[in-house]
Amino acid sequence: MTGFIVRRIALTVPVLLGITLFTFAFLKVTGDPCAALLGERYTPERCEQIRVRYGLDQPPHVQYGRYLQTTLGGDLGRSILTRRPVTSELKIVFPATVELALAAMLIAVCAGIPLGVIAAARHNSAVDLGAMVVALVGVSMPVFWLGLMLVYALAFKLGWFPTSGRLSAGVHVEVVTGLYVLDSVLGRNWDGFWDALHHLALPAFALSTIPAAIVARITRSAMLDVLGQDYIRTARAKGLGERAVIARHALANALLPVVTVVGLQTGFLLSGAVLTETIFAWPGMGRWIVDAISSNDVPVVQGGVLVFATVFVVVNLVVDISYAWLDPRIRFT
Amino acid sequence: MTHAPPLPPPTVDLASLTAAQPRPPWRTAARRVVRNRLALAGLVIIGGLVAAAVLAPVLAREHPNAAGIWAVAPRESRAAPSAAHPLGTDQLGRDQLSRMLYGARVSLVIGFAAVSLAIVAGTLLGALAGYLGGWVDTVVMRLMDVMLAFPSILLALAIVALTGPGLMNVLLAVGIISIPNYARIVRSSVLAERHKEYVDATVALGASRRRVLFRHVLPNSLSPLIVAASLGIGTAILDAAGLGFLGLGGRPPLAEWGLMLSDNRQKLFSEWWLVATPGVAIMLTVLGFNLLGDGLRDVLDPRLRGRRG
After folding, report:
1. Residues A216, A218, A221, A225, Cα dihedral to 10°
2. How many separate domains does chain B show?
3. Rounded CA gap, B298 and B174, in Å?
4. Tell me, what's the pLDDT at B206?
5. Which of A64, A207, B144, B277 has the most C-beta neighbours closer than 10 Å?
6. Mind telling me how many Å the CA of A13 is from chain B's nearest CA?
7. Nearest residue of B to residue A313, measured between CA atoms
């Protein structure tokens, strides 16, 4: 097992290096930072000074080395727009996205797995067909459209939920982790908890539809695979009820592929967060990057993309390792 | 053992001999697609959309940007749905239905073009990696891993941030982000085929590397590619609409569904249908390609055959 983990971690190193190379190239391609930094005070001499000061006169591989060094040291530069370090902005927007993504994943798993199990248990029935059509529609739905429809129906017409943001005006939550729902529980702030949960509900639901549909489809096909195997026939033959066969014997094995899919969906959740956060004015990383793109704030785009991609790679690593831990066949091949 | 009844004398029927030609495989596949209800539904949806896109100038009452002098009837902006404007008019008084019909052209072209680009590039890269092996394989596949390490919309966003907003750049971005998918599919089927005996036989007969690759090895990866392409067109349309919605695609007044959605977003609380309808169009289109892709997978992947009713 240790060998497997070490090998798997070693495999991610070139990928991580590739990501930094990409974000480094990104800065190079977006052009000369002189104009952005100097603005109206631009003169060729001042530009030359800046180039020397930031090492832009060095050959590319030296520059990349320096970039790697500062990045590994936790310095992602400063936002051109706000002049604040990118890392300190990240500390605010990152937890918001994590909270949204975790809530969406929770909803997706809680809805997707039962839906898949029921569809498989009643294979080829109307229930099965209905569940799979619902799942297909879920996969095909643009998340930004669903978000707007939810805002219209549930927030505007019925007034059940707020339309945007993370907290109502006047409600305060003591920040510990940056996940407001969790923080308010830690601080025993039940008003804050209720308010944060209310704000989280719609964006999390909108973001969860596609992963829920994918989880349901994978659960169904994994269950169908398992239900066709001999040991299930044995379990049935010894007189176990169908419920026990499914819950105790089939589900445990069928959940293995589901674990992988749940992990892979993290990438989707991060992508979807970009659109969902825009709709619900959720102050997370996705909206932060989109805003930075429209205002041409290169260090923010660069740092944000780097962090997004790194999180994705690390999550995939964790998924692979947990998969090997759950299924011994993986680690010995 | 019992005696078998004597066999009837063999008769040679020339007509039946010629008729007994094996049916070409694509016809078998086509027949199965039509029998698969979900795939058929997908085909019908896609067919309807293609018809709407091609016939848009005939079907639409007005030019997508008709307002002022081109208007058929006196303009009323943000009109509720009526006989004259079945889906109402937007804030500039343009007929929403006409714009939706023209929007089908943009989405379908982006979907097909982006996926074609990705398939051509992905097939070349995957085939080279799988067939040549060695360092080419390592370099290409590591590059693909790095691309897969970026959440798709994010990579597309980064590409559009580099190239600047625009429909063409969205098309490129959406195409580029799906290259790794196809490269992986082609590489794995090339690896699977490369050491089979028929390939050795072809090589022994003196066929060139290129001929072996393109005439013998690649056709075997065709069916997973077709399935991936059908599902991929849906994803590409969805991603492109998302980028359009974020304002990174075409500029107004282009009739593009994602852009129409964000243009009318401010009217959500008063004229909700202006926001609802382009979304329904996107969903239907993507659903069509997903249904077809699923159906094709059932048909083309023999391991799955018979699993569904």
Report:
1. -130
2. 1
3. 26
4. 86
5. A207
6. 11
7. B149
Closest CA to A116 of A224, A217, A15, A248: A217
Between the CA of residue A190 and those of A102, A106, A187, A331, what are the distances in Å? 20, 21, 8, 45
Q: CB distance A142–B308 less than 8 Å?
A: no
Distances from the Cα of A75 to the Cαs of A66, A69, A71, A112, A128, in angstroms? 11, 9, 5, 40, 52
Q: What is the pLDDT of residues B148-188, one digit of tens each?
A: 877 778 888 888 877 878 889 999 999 999 999 999 989 98
Residue A137 in contact with partner chain B when CB distance is under 8 A: yes
For residue A29, give how far its alpha carbon lies from the nearest alpha carbon of chain B (Å): 7
Contact flag A15-B282 (C-beta cutoff 8 Å): no
Backbone angles phi, psi at A85, to 5 degrees: -60, 140
Please give the model's pTM, rounded to 2 decimal places.
0.83
Q: Cα separation of A117 and A223, whole Å?
A: 7
Composition of chain A by helix, strand, coil, percent to 5: 80, 0, 20
In a shared domain, residues A118 and A252: yes
Flag whether residue A20 sits within 8 Å of chain B, measured between CB atoms: no
Whether A24 and chain B come into contact, CB under 8 Å, resolves to no
Q: Tell me whether residues A270 and B234 touch, CB distance under 8 A.
A: no
CA distance A208 to B305: 31
Mutate to test the interface with A, among B145, B146, B266 (most CBs of A within 10 A): B146
Q: Are residues A192 and A162 in the same domain?
A: yes
Q: Give residue A41's domain range.
A: 31-75
Domain enclosing residue B278, as ranges: 33-61+93-300
Chain A residue numbers touching B268 (CB-CB < 8 A)? 148, 151-152, 156
A91 and A51 co-located in one domain = no
Whether B142 and A309 lie within 8 Å, measured CB to CB: no
Q: Which residue has the higher pLDDT, A126 or B11?
A: A126
Of B242, B272, B284, the CB nearest to A275: B242
Q: How far is CA B119 from CA A4, A292, B185, B234, B240, in A?
A: 34, 32, 10, 14, 17
Least Cα distance to A113 among A219, A211, A28 occurs for: A219
B154–A275 CB contact, under 8 Å? no
Cβ-defined contact of A275 to B307 (cutoff 8 Å): no
CB count in 10 Å sphere of residue B243? 29
CATH code where residue B220 lies: 1.10.3720.10
CB-count exposure of residue B185 (10 Å: 0-12, 13-18, 19+): buried
Same domain assignment for residues A184 and A251:
yes
pLDDT of A9 higher than 90: no
Poorest-pLDDT segment among A210-224, B202-216, B293-307:
B293-307
Could you tell me if residue B306 is inside a domain? no
- Convert the pLDDT of each residue in B76-94 to its tens digit: 666 777 777 777 777 777 7
**pLDDT for B29-38, tens place per residue?**
777 777 778 8
pLDDT of B306 reads 46
**How long a stretch of residues is chain B?**
309
